[in-house]
Amino acid sequence: MTSDGFYNYDLEVTILCSFIYNENITHPTINPDIFYNPIHKSIYLTILSLHKQGTSIDEVLIRNHLVNQLNIKVDNAEQHLLRIMSANPTLSIDSYIELLEDLRKKRDIKTTLLTLNQELLENKSASELESSLLRYTEKITNQSTTELFKMTAASNIEAKDADFITKNFIPVPKKTVSIFSAGGGTGKTSLLLQLAMHYLYENPKQRAFCWLSEDPLGLTKHRLNRIITGLFPKGSETLHRLILSEDLTFPTLLEMNRSMSINPLFYKMKLILKDFNLIILDPLIAFFGGDENNNAQAKLFMQLFTKWAAEEDKTIIFIHHSTKNTSQSRGASAFVDAARAVYEIEKIKDEDGKEVDTAIRKISLTKDNYRAFKYFGGFSKKLKVFPADDEVATQPTFEVEYSIDDELGIQ
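The chain above was modelled as a monomer; its predicted structure follows.
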């Protein structure tokens, strides 16, 4: 009973029959959506539930669950179960599952094409259509064959502490998003350039990308030279793997028809930066595109980057402006809520509020979900961010230049 090449009734029945008759089959972590028939999907979820409860799997228990818990009509439930119980079970179901998974993807693609065609008929803009296309494409690509959620006994889980980069400088948790916040002229960019060089020196096979949209490349190069000459000479060995951009940024969120959508350029950026392990973006607000004080929009924005970091093993750092006359992150609290570590950078001042020790900054760990303080040596310390002017004799020459305007399609 195959229709249009998008589902196969017999394959679905064979898999369900095999689960019922052969309880020794290890239940694979398959996506329930591979079952096109909604009752077949309900039957699979029922079998899975009984299996997890350690209950015997038979047609009576399945029927009762369908009727009593899912409110499926008795005749309908019994009719489908009769067909399943009359099928021929198999011990080798992997190939059947692969075939159904292929059909599921075809259905997803068909649905996407129909949706895009409808949006074309609605005369939506090219940007809206491109955003929809990229969003659906990513969903199809990342659609896994896992269960609705996975449950594991605590006794079977291997304990792993959070991991960090640059533990001996400023510890930043891996595979997530962190924020460095400070006022203007505090030296946050210089500090993050040092961090990037420390990371690259400690990881000779990795690459880092810094999108410093507020500073021209020449100024950034000057800062790198000063850091290498006066603070971190070993940084000279890392610059061929430190990639920079001064280009104008793009808003990740776009307001369309009174709702927020994801800019298709975000997906292009992810593709371009797929080979980079450390990504530093400056400033956060330039990549946002929403209302800076809107928590719902800030949460949506941060979720995009935390998901990216977790799924693709990225360490992402936002440089963020602070509120006036403080070092605290400005805007919606959801920015800080989503970050796993937040550092605030302050100038050193005397009792009269006059800056002293102009090369030194106070770095405070104000949010620490993963216990970075163990490597930071507490929650606050002073670090040398700038070399003294007399320490800079000659500046070494290094070529560090990179533009991604053309690749991102920014005019």
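The CA atoms of residues 115 and 237 lie 51 Å apart.
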